[in-house]
From TrEMBL, chain A:
<dbReference type="InterPro" id="IPR050366">
    <property type="entry name" value="BP-dependent_transpt_permease"/>
</dbReference>
<protein>
    <submittedName>
        <fullName>Peptide ABC transporter permease</fullName>
    </submittedName>
</protein>
<feature type="transmembrane region" description="Helical">
    <location>
        <begin position="139"/>
        <end position="165"/>
    </location>
</feature>
<feature type="transmembrane region" description="Helical">
    <location>
        <begin position="186"/>
        <end position="219"/>
    </location>
</feature>
<keyword id="KW-1133">Transmembrane helix</keyword>
<dbReference type="InterPro" id="IPR000515">
    <property type="entry name" value="MetI-like"/>
</dbReference>
<feature type="transmembrane region" description="Helical">
    <location>
        <begin position="77"/>
        <end position="101"/>
    </location>
</feature>
<feature type="transmembrane region" description="Helical">
    <location>
        <begin position="113"/>
        <end position="133"/>
    </location>
</feature>
<dbReference type="GO" id="GO:0055085">
    <property type="term" value="P:transmembrane transport"/>
</dbReference>
From TrEMBL, chain B:
<feature type="domain" description="ABC transporter">
    <location>
        <begin position="23"/>
        <end position="270"/>
    </location>
</feature>
<keyword id="KW-0547">Nucleotide-binding</keyword>
<dbReference type="Pfam" id="PF08352">
    <property type="entry name" value="oligo_HPY"/>
</dbReference>
<dbReference type="GO" id="GO:0055085">
    <property type="term" value="P:transmembrane transport"/>
</dbReference>
<dbReference type="Pfam" id="PF00005">
    <property type="entry name" value="ABC_tran"/>
</dbReference>
<dbReference type="GO" id="GO:0005524">
    <property type="term" value="F:ATP binding"/>
</dbReference>
<dbReference type="InterPro" id="IPR003593">
    <property type="entry name" value="AAA+_ATPase"/>
</dbReference>
<dbReference type="InterPro" id="IPR027417">
    <property type="entry name" value="P-loop_NTPase"/>
</dbReference>
<dbReference type="InterPro" id="IPR013563">
    <property type="entry name" value="Oligopep_ABC_C"/>
</dbReference>
Length: 310, 351
């Protein structure tokens, strides 16, 4: 928890969070904010440049681009969030369980995760849509399944080091239950790592959602999405070479902010063992805390980075 | 455990309560091995020890002699292959699952880890750490806990406002006190302290040792102090047990063991300890094996005396490991074939 509080003090986090907050607001209220109906076609005003009644111009069917961008945010972001939440449920719970449920469960879950990690995101999502019918939910749950190994691996790796910690052993000697140990001793140490992974996974999921909608999987064409707009704009590059920049900017801003936030959380976690308050408070007797700093936690930075696919 | 249940237990065994030691280890062998069934290496071999309530037992030995394993076996962290351990008349060896958890939750046995830096969770406050055995354990009301934590902190000499700090803001000596407070907050009957002072400077060492001495008086604890350092035990231990390579080579009242050791290894330990006084002492040089030494001691067989390869007095009979034998009373045992006559040979050689 202290790591998360420390994150808020970092400049990168302060840049990223307002952007993400704005995107979240757009996702929730984008449709209501849209000045015009994002689906209304106006054949008299095809491919207009920005200005006048249409602040960002119109597309090849005469639809207002600004309204489509605003209204499309919801579907794109909701899809990514849905995928990541599914991945967290499927990854974190078995990841922690694999530490305690014995060798058989550990072996089976690890092999299942290995198998899942070999599958490519987009193809698997398309296959899932092919089997379960076209829809954003099907595609996103499929994506969630594919992202879950990430959470499984990261949670497991982060927790593994701490289950051997002496204070965990001490708690076991007090007769503490696993739930108690998890809640009191392990969770606060795993949380920063999970937070980093979540931010990265959201960025990955968002990109996958946009590529899927770009391909026309998940959301049917008339409904606006960032990826769908990008796809249709590419067809009219000759008339409107600047058009794809608009949805692309939104995608880039969101993904970039998520990555910045992930970095900030990670940096805060790496600096976490340095007792920042001790320096300003009364001089620590014997000066031990400083020496203890870097060795206290086995570098959560490397652990957080290692399992992330580029 | 509350005082009322303590008296209840004592009343239940009126005959044994007075005489039976609180901790009784008999014939304990511990072996670590990756697979059961395969010949595993014995870390402890046939160790028998007692500790009474209100008594401090010092366990001494060099690195790898099995001292920590001895304490870990008592709390169920080491695989016991033979022997029995009883605490307060109750057998604790081979406990598993629910009975083990209940014993641990009762807080009657406390184990103090060697490293106070790593055994305290850096994210919790001192109050949370000290109160954890109560929160996890049984028999304490929620409202009582804060008071008990304050009491425990006071007992180890830490001001109450330390409860709000995290371990990162404490010095080494203060951390060791927190660790101690956590161990006594449940009012245990038996406290196993693993190298409680090895990481501390001289003044902190004395503080912590005096504290242990005080605690066993005020709480009637049996304390087992594990140490590699003879001088830290000399002042406060009532009895001392010497371990060498997993064997108990000598035990007895601290004074006797330190001033007139019966085993050559103990003699070597006392001779090696720095001391200001230098009167009729044995020097370490006198206890070094001299050539020609018996051929077999260079590669001693498995059942030979464990000290034979370092012992200047090793003879043919040392090919068989000596059994621990009482010497001048039941309180003192030594495992050495030469216990009676090695001193004479020492003076004879010195001449």
């Amino acid at each position: 928890m202290r790591t998360l509080r420390r994150t808020l003090r970092l400049r990168t986090a302060r840049t990223a969070l307002p952007v993400l907050a704005a995107v979240a607001l757009l996702a929730l209220f984008g449709g209501a904010l849209a000045p015009q109906d994002p689906l209304a076609q106006d054949t008299a005003q095809l491919l207009h440049a920005p200005g006048g009644a249409h602040l960002l111009g119109t597309d090849y069917l005469g639809r207002d681009v600004l309204s489509r961008l605003l209204a499309g945010t919801g579907d794109s972001v909701a899809g990514a969030v849905e995928a990541v939440v599914a991945a967290m449920l499927l990854g974190i719970v078995p990841g922690i369980a694999s530490l305690w449920l014995g060798r058989v469960f550990e072996w089976v879950s690890l092999r299942a995760v290995d198998a899942l990690m070999t599958l490519p995101f987009t193809l698997f999502a398309i296959a899932a849509v092919g089997v379960f019918g076209n829809g954003l939910h099907q595609a996103m749950l499929a994506l969630g399944v594919l992202l879950s190994p990430l959470f499984f691996r990261v949670t497991r790796a982060a927790a593994l080091g701490f289950t051997q910690a002496q204070y965990v052993q001490a708690a076991e000697l007090m007769g503490a239950s696993r739930r108690w140990i998890l809640r009191t001793h392990l969770w606060s140490k795993i949380l920063p790592t999970v937070a980093v992974t979540t931010a990265h996974a959201l960025a990955t999921a968002l990109l996958t959602v946009t590529s899927l909608t770009f391909l026309g999987v998940g959301v049917q064409p008339p409904a606006p999405t960032w990826g769908g707009m990008l796809a249709s704009d590419l067809g009219f590059l000759a008339q409107q070479p600047w058009a794809p920049i608009l949805p692309a900017t939104l995608i880039m801003l969101t993904v970039g902010a998520l990555n910045l936030l992930a970095d900030a959380v990670r940096d805060a976690g790496a600096a976490g063992t340095e007792p920042a308050r001790a320096r300003t408070a009364a001089p620590a007797p014997a000066g031990r805390p400083h020496r203890a700093g870097p060795t206290e936690q086995p570098a959560p930075k490397e652990q957080a980075d290692a399992p992330l696919p580029a | 455990m509350s005082p009322s249940t303590a008296t209840a237990t004592a009343a239940a065994h009126p005959a044994t309560a007075a005489t039976e030691p609180l901790l009784r280890i008999s014939g304990l062998s511990v072996a670590y091995g990756r697979r059961p069934g395969r010949a595993a290496e014995r870390v402890l071999d046939d160790v028998s020890l007692d500790a009474r309530a209100g008594e401090i037992l010092g366990v001494i030995g060099e690195t790898g002699s099995g001292k920590t394993t001895l304490a870990r076996a008592v709390v169920g962290l080491a695989p016991v292959v033979e022997g029995r351990i009883t605490v307060d008349g109750e057998e604790v060896t081979g406990l598993r699952g629910r009975p083990l958890r209940e014993l641990r939750r009762s807080g009657r046995i406390q184990y103090m880890f060697q490293d106070p830096l790593r055994s305290l969770d850096p994210d919790l406050t001192v109050g949370e750490i000290v109160g954890e055995p109560l929160t996890v354990g049984t028999g304490t009301e929620r409202g009582e806990r804060a008071g008990r934590v304050r009491e425990a902190l006071e007992l180890v000499g830490l001001p109450a406002e330390f409860a709000e700090r995290t371990p990162g803001r404490l010095s080494g000596g203060q951390r060791q006190r927190v660790s101690l407070a956590r161990s006594v907050v449940t009012r245990p009957r038996l406290l196993l302290a693993d190298e409680p002072v090895s990481a501390l400077d001289a003044s902190n060492r004395n503080h912590v040792l005096l504290l242990l001495d005080e605690l066993r008086r005020s709480l009637g604890l049996a304390v087992v102090i594990i140490s590699h350092d003879l001088s830290s035990l000399a002042g406060i231990a009532d009895r001392i047990a010497v371990l060498y390579r997993g064997r108990l080579v000598e035990q007895g009242p601290a004074e006797d063991v330190l001033t007139s050791p019966l085993h050559p290894y103990t003699a070597l330990l006392t001779a090696s300890a720095p001391s200001v006084r230098r009167e009729h002492r044995i020097t370490p040089a006198q206890l070094r094996p001299r050539d020609p030494r018996p051929e077999w001691t260079l590669q001693p067989p498995a059942d030979a005396c464990v000290f034979a390869h370092r012992c200047p007095f090793a003879g043919e009979d040392c090919r068989q490991a000596p059994a621990a034998a009482a010497h001048g009373g039941p309180a003192r045992t030594v495992a050495c074939h030469r216990a009676a006559d090695w001193r004479e040979r020492l003076t004879a050689d010195a001449l």
